[in-house]
Design goal:
The chain is of the alpha/beta class and about 325 residues long. The protein is built from twelve helices and twelve strands. The structure holds adenosine-5'-diphosphate and magnesium ion.
């Protein structure tokens, strides 16, 4: 598979008074061209910080990319000047976040907001054609009555419509990579399914690569070509989606999987099958970071951090159980 983005050994830390929070701690992953990578893990595992690091969107001065490499379409993003990176961000790489309500400006109507993006990134579109272009973009992302809704203000749209508008704005520049961080988490299940369908459609239509982040393996499983499972700032499993869903290797992935099974069999009641919680980023346990919650742990797990073991050439698992495989 031809790679569009490749992250190697990325470390992004928060430096606070006298502590260091290792939000992203040696993450390596790649995203293929015209391919969807799902990134999954419980809250606090470092998914958002990995995504923000790609665009060097550090939330605050105490947050720094400490080391690593992020190669995007032949360029090393960590070596680009701020100016050059700004040209890539929003154009070749664009973001969609969980809360469309907070990303949209409440005092501008949809047309006015999208116009700003068109003027910035689509200088090829003539002034007198912008209105029709915007309506067409809204139709493409599945907004009904786009000719009317284009004049609506954010509060007049449903949650699903707002997220569609955000997605429309994100793809106006014809990006190579769309980073969608929990884009369906705030939506109910039916709307969630429609947004997944939309992202799949846009991927094909625009030949997009997508980094799709969710805490929900069920959602990620529906949309991904590859899946990256994160735990405590690290990648614990990286695999073609089909293989991972058929045979999850890491005990943490198996735990996420069991949550799904329990969810499916018992209907609405979601059971947390993984005891305990994600350790705080300033205070990781010695050895494997998952060992305090792992039912398969043995002596070595408590003392030594497992490396990523490569299995069948395409799968990676950070677990001592796979030492000899
Ligand atoms: N603004 C911040 N200040 C300090 N620590 C943060 C901040 N944002 C995130 N973190 C820490 O970084 C870790 C990873 O966070 P995040 O990437 O948001 O996780 P996820 O998206 O997987 O829920 C968390 O443990 C969190 O404590
Ligand atoms: Mg997050």
């Amino acid at each position: 598979m031809e790679k569009l983005l490749e992250i190697k050994n990325l470390k992004t830390y928060f430096y606070q008074d006298d502590s260091v929070i290792k939000a992203v701690d040696d993450v390596s992953l790649f995203i293929g061209k015209n391919s969807i990578l799902g990134v999954v893990g419980e809250s606090g595992c470092g998914k958002t910080m990995t995504a923000l690091s790609i665009g060097r969107l550090m939330p605050g001065a105490g947050c720094k990319i400490v080391s690593g490499s992020i190669k995007f379409s032949g360029r090393e993003l960590l070596e680009l000047s701020k100016e050059d990176l700004r040209k890539i961000r929003g154009k070749e790489i664009s973001y969609v976040f969980q809360e469309p309500a907070t990303s949209l400006n409440p005092v501008l109507n949809i047309k006015e907001q999208i116009e700003e993006v068109v003027r910035l990134h689509r200088k090829d579109i003539k002034e007198n054609l912008i209105h029709d272009f915007i309506v067409k973009q809204l139709e493409t992302v599945g907004i009904n009555q786009a000719g009317v809704k284009v004049f609506a203000y954010p509060h007049q749209l449903s949650g699903g419509e707002k997220q569609r508008v955000m997605i429309a704005m994100a793809v106006i520049s014809n990006p190579l990579l769309l980073i969608a961080d929990e884009p369906t988490t705030a939506l109910d299940v039916t709307i969630q399914a429609q947004i997944l369908e939309l992202i799949l459609k846009l991927k094909e239509k625009l030949c997009l690569s997508v980094m799709f982040i969710s805490h929900d393996l069920n959602v990620v499983g529906q949309i991904s070509d590859y899946i990256c499972v994160m735990y405590a700032g690290q990648v614990v499993e990286f695999s073609p989606a089909e293989d991972l869903l058929e045979d999850p290797n890491h005990p943490y992935t198996q735990g996420l999987f069991n949550c799904l099974q329990a969810f499916n069999e018992k209907g609405k009641e979601k059971l947390n099958e993984i005891p305990g919680e994600v350790p705080k980023s300033g205070d990781f346990p010695k050895g494997c970071r998952f060992h305090p919650r792992c039912s398969k742990k043995f002596g070595r797990c408590e003392n030594e951090m497992p490396p990523l073991f490569i299995r069948n050439k395409t799968r990676e698992v950070r677990c001592w159980l796979y030492l000899s495989s």
